[in-house]
Amino acid sequence: MLPSFFDLTLADLTDVLVARGLNKFSAGQIYDWVYKKHVRDPAEWTNVSKETRAWLAESYDFRLPKIVWQGLSVDGTRKFLVGFTDGNTVETVAIPARDRLTLCVSSQVGCAIGCTFCYTATQGLKRHLKPGEVVGQFLAAQEWLTKNVGEDARLTNIVYMGQGEPLHNYENIKKATQIYLEPKGMGLGQRRITLSTSGLVPAIEKLIEFPPVNIAISLHAAHNDVRTELMPINKVYDLERLFKAIKTIPLKAHRRITYEYLLIDGLNDGIADVEGLASLLPKGESKVNLIPFNEFPGSKYKRPSEKTVFWFMQQMESRGITCTVRTTKGTDILAACGQLKSAYEDGRLNLWDDRSQTRPTNASTSPQVPAPQ
Hints:
- The structure is a single chain.
- The chain is α/β, with parallel strands linked by helices.
- It has two domains: 5-59, DNA polymerase, domain 1 (Orthogonal Bundle); 66-349, TIM Barrel (Alpha-Beta Barrel).
- Helix content is 28%, strand content 18%.
- It has helices at 10-19, 26-36, 50-59, 131-148, 170-181, 201-204, 224-230, 239-246, 271-280, 306-318, and strands at residues 66-72, 78-83, 89-96, 101-104, 108-110, 125-128, 157-160, 193-197, 214-218, 257-263, 286-292, 322-325, 344-345, 348-349.
- Helix 9 (271-280) links the parallel strand 10 and strand 11.
- Helix 1 (10-19) crosses helix 2 (26-36) and helix 4 (131-148) packs across helix 5 (170-181).
- The radius of gyration is 21 Å and the shape is elongated.
- Mean pLDDT is 88; it is low at 344-373.
């Protein structure tokens, strides 16, 4: 099987051309054809030498991941089931807002972190995604939207908030981010990409080497006992270790770290939680994004009332912490935060009801990737 072209950063492509004795300046032209003009057939690259085109066509796979299924929510959110060459699948979600269309991409098939509030955790970890499979989610979704919705359906932002822990797949996500940012290619701005992590401390300490994108920390609790119940990773990297690591994150001027806080009825939505959270966060450098819990089949937690959510936000703001509430979207197709899972189960797509077309079960037996130590 040929390696994917989409695993190559511009620097990687330049290196392979030089190693082959080909013109290194062709790398920028090729990136322009593939990522700006969306022409993946080397035969059509008119300003690239015939020798270079022929060699790349023989040496690399230019296919994108397949859109196996897509579903449209009543609120306009669209979920894609994306399939890879080994039969594994991930879910990718396009979330519309007034001035942007954000793609929530997955970083792994499944997840090893085991958060008890997350549907992805129920499938465990199958494997890491390669850079081209991360980038391919964006390209495949954009191609589908252009063909089926229209030229105006342009993806503008990326959040690493799909299946998996991005920093558990650090090197591949770093390379995918470099590809997203490359000016001669996709050219997304740094402020249009958000990296979210559950708190993998050793990888957080390496963010000084990561492209300077927006950072979001999945906090979800202000006390270790509650956070450990929700996120087993807290047993190893507790709040003290986590916030020590957060201090090492390089922030550009006027940037803040976003703390994602999942509100669960009766568990982390009281006055003690407000006070604990306010005491943890550095004022002026923090923003809290409240996420009312999104229920999924088999979940033991419940969503708090809108009154409680509004009260919690007011309490945080009265303590000088910028606080917003994430609008819940896509719950009718299990596309909201915490509801993603590789979608084949018992020959049926992973939705609330039976309105979707049934498809064969994903029988992939990819090897398990060890959990972070």
